[in-house]
Amino acid sequence: MTTDSWINETLYPDWGQRFRVTRELARVRSAFQDIVIFESSSHGRVMLLDGVVQITEGDEFVYQEMLTHVPLLAHGACTRVLIIGAGDGGVLRRVLQHRGVREAVMVEIDGEVIRLAKEFLPAIAGEAWHDPRATVLVGDGIDYVKQAPDDRFDAIIVDSTDPIGIGEVLFTDAFYANAARILAPGGLIVNQCGVPFMQADELRETSARRARFFPHVGAYVAAVPTYVGGFMTLGFAAKQAGLDAVPATTIRARAEAAGILGATQYWTPDIHAGAFHLPPYIARHLPPRS
Amino acid sequence: MTTDSWINETLYPDWGQRFRVTRELARVRSAFQDIVIFESSSHGRVMLLDGVVQITEGDEFVYQEMLTHVPLLAHGACTRVLIIGAGDGGVLRRVLQHRGVREAVMVEIDGEVIRLAKEFLPAIAGEAWHDPRATVLVGDGIDYVKQAPDDRFDAIIVDSTDPIGIGEVLFTDAFYANAARILAPGGLIVNQCGVPFMQADELRETSARRARFFPHVGAYVAAVPTYVGGFMTLGFAAKQAGLDAVPATTIRARAEAAGILGATQYWTPDIHAGAFHLPPYIARHLPPRS
In this prediction, does ipTM exceed 0.85? Predict the structure, then answer.
């Protein structure tokens, strides 16, 4: 994977990005995956799982803000949030920025990711690990949603790898059925659905699956620098209608009350509202509107 | 630049994208630059100028649609359009899709780019080369705008390389002064301003320069898969106010009249309107609003 001082991402067989490595910080084979963290001059520190870029210090704000603030502010009254994956703690930090959140449960399967993120990427989570509202569990997200009681959460955020390898089970019927069950009325779930220009199947297949368990299924987009290939999509499935069409003025008012307004580098109320307008080349992979 | 069957883009010193090459089609040193065209399994045919990706068959629609339809429909009554650069003919084709356009003048400095695009990328321009409304000149865009009469065009589209090498003169005071002069009252100019996550200086410096010659300066974004690094920005400078805030409903009506509605894969009226809402990490590089 390393040639001289370059690391090539190995996500696709015939196209990829590469980083000049100034220093390798960790290279660990956990019980679940290969974890590599290195320093780059272009993006700061970078974490790869099984050869695929998961997070960089330089651009993590795009993905984390859009994966967190959009569902919480679209819902408008989330107090209990479940995070699956996201071992770097970046989503947890963003969730806890919301004043209304009383409880955030994070379930990450790979304790090594958490340990290495705390050691080498401490700014990503900041003080979130120590927030009294946070519960961080090392365990299987599938088991967790199976055992959680009905109506337990207002929002579920799935920050997984692509639906290959260990992330695959987070895109199954069994997972979505339990997710729907443990969400309170009006609740919603978001999860990353890859970059449609390169991975259209991922959006199409997982959206069709979400549509079996949720009445309102859609997607929104974010331009994440290191999830290369144009827009990535974030899958959106809700128990109530209209969460994907909340006007920017309403979102702004909610963000102000939540303490989010002005605290972001990518997300804004207008970008929130605009992100649900999909380019035709992406929209055609979604199920017909209910 | 070639290792085995891979080509690495050489735009940045410490980060880049790479393509697996299935067949090299052309490798030419013109009077101005190195031109390479190859076939890839991921993106179809790809053209590089001086080692930098200019266009791929797979994703050209994103850039071409946003660079063309946004200024023409924001203006709403363009009949005479000047295109500088864009030797592949893709912008010319999109400009001529607009029913109201009576004349499109294209000035490309490097005749070899046009020749090779016609031979190896014929679908990009399609029949545009033969449209009676088109005038294709091989020449220097700087000289052209110097010699063109006042008020000659309604819109100018600059599809140049980055402001390094031969593209640099298209970002100078002299160029913008003449551009403002040859635009009719109410006219506007757009040009690509790079990917701010990687090249923020480009947006900042060229926007400040445009602001010396145009009263209304801004930018809009597009997520172009192979202009990697998140959103790219398209600089926007107008002689009349408000062209960056035309409501989507108005844009839709204009697009319908122009024959554009339903003919795009990325551009839509909502995406058009939304593209002017910039993430804070990009907005901070623009001059203060006039």
Answer: yes
